[in-house]
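Hi R.,

Here are the chain sequences for the assembly we discussed:
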Amino acid sequence: MSRPEPPPVLPEGVDPAWLPPEVFRPLGRRRTLVRGHGPLVDTAHGEVAAACARFGGEVVRDARAAAPYDLVLDVTDAPDLGDEGFTCVRRDGTTTVTAAGGRGLLYGLFHVVRLGEDAFGSERPLETHRPAVALRALDHWDNVAVHPVMGQVERGYAGGSLFWRDGEARGETERVRAYGRLLAACGINAVTVNNVNVHATEARLLTDRIGEVAALADALRPYGIRTHLSVTFAAPVVLGGLPTADPLDEGVRRWWAATAARVYEVIGDFGGFVVKADSEGQPGPFTYGRTHADGANMLAAALAPHGGTVRWRAFVYNHRQDWRDRSTDRARAAYDHFAPLDGEFAENAVLQVKHGPVDFQAREPVSPVLGALPRTRLALEVQATQEYTGQQRHVCWLGPMWSEVLRFRPDGEDGGPGVGDLAGGLVAVSNVGDDPFWTGHPLAQANLYTVGRLGWRPDTDPHDLLDEWIRLTFPAGASADPGRLREGLRAVLHGSWRTYEKYTAPLGVGFMVQPGHHYGPSVDGYEYSPWGTYHFADRDGIGVDRTAATGTGYAAQYAKPWAELYESVRTCPDELLLFFHHVPYGHVLHSGTTVIQHIYDTHFAGVAEVEEARRVWDSLADLVAPARHERVAERYEEQLRCAREWRDQINSYFFRKSGVPDARGRHIH
Ligand code: GCU
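And here is the predicted structure of the full complex:
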């Protein structure tokens, strides 16, 4: 029987993020007809019913007569819309959302919520919406048990896990449901519930603890979210007691097939596996002399009968490198491992590729892997959790960076599709925890929102998405001066990624962070380490020669237009100069300043921009709820302290190395 599924009740004190009750007012004041069957239609019905209960409107289910309704949410036979697409039109006083199924209907409903009063104003021409990217996932690096080094959530900056605590499932279904609702409202359709580094306790989620995963899947399903699981490649040995995990061994293949079948018995719509193999100490097919295609295909075969997908990560490199060895280049590794395997992966295997060749730095070139495997399904992986971008203590809205990656055309600026068209998946490492603001820093919610929406339209101007987030999160009716508030939020968020880039590692060189936790500056922190992340600064110059002519050859991993552009110091873009070239401090950039002067200037400017952002935030105190304002204000203090530390360490280091004074005579320590 069709009945409304009421929306989750937020636990006391938890922030409604971009779904405060106020945004449902336009919908809740009207007469709505909901037509169609299935659990997700029940969810949509429940949303409208709750809005009407609050704001005085009325909702009817499955009425035959097309009496005058303000809004009709209709599931009909419209195969060209796919499972998730919908149309929206306003004619003769009625707004109609049509979808082929419950998922599309739910996305259509949230579209109406985003439109607000505009959904019910003048006529609107028919618009068709379909997500450009099919898989829009959040990977939670959540541990079930607290890891002695990484804690409950690896690289987590928002408290504990929403799913697990101290080795147990938290069982907080309502909160997980509320999370699913937020994700659906920004367009995400998949969640991986455990860390890619699969430790012993977490491994068992695949077998005897699968019931706990099923409970999470049950909570997320009403909002159209499929659950995925990270698995260890060694599972047949560590869980199944087999002597080997060799992907070509018959016993191993049977074990995976049977294990996958059992997963699907309890989670019928299970999404699939995520695998980090032969990477940073995780087991993988190399142990058995097999390729990564062999490994991925074995898991793909186990999942195929059930419609599941294996996401196989391309993050494979030697993390035990000898820093004296100048021939090994970590940036080359993913391409070197995976490009030769193009065409060998199964239909339901997806290669998940980090956006840059190294590791989520604030500035990296786009990974050449994304353009090198035309016969392989690809997913782009970005990091919403701000491991290298201020750990949710700094404001760093990453929309513009992700947008640059998604718009990058691997075949050259004038030709071929962009990454957003090539990738069938957009995966973000989640920045969410059990923090009342979800993301620790309340403004980091904007990253989560943006990444989901970019999955629908990778070519959208991210600033429009930021405005959307602002409109929803801070509804006009709830503020004394919505214009000033909106301007202030824009001012502190728009340029925050570039600001962060300015006061941290210069010109794309990356990795000047403190080893281990990766917060704050340590110029030489990774310079003599086995992790392969060097800058090679000496008294004369800085940067990594990655050219084909004299360097590691990394630049040649790109198609010709990019390879040529990056190869030449004359054409390489300033912001990536030190990623591709080792240059003297006196080298003159396209901008007209020298490298050393650029370092000084950007570091002074970056700190000044944080000071200004903090001032703007302070000026909004009368317009933002006290708890939120205070939380952000506190974090600005820390951001400013840390930015000054970056500025002074970086500037002093390069002044001491180079002996070149600041042309503007500012104080350098
Ligand atoms: C980074 C991060 C690790 C993480 C790894 C990965 O190296 O520091 O914590 O496990 O990325 O993406 O697998």
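The chain has a mean pLDDT of 97. The pocket of alpha-D-glucopyranuronic acid is lined by residues 154-155, 196-197, 276, 280, 315, 359, 387 (CB under 6 Å).

Let me know if anything looks off.

Best,
T.
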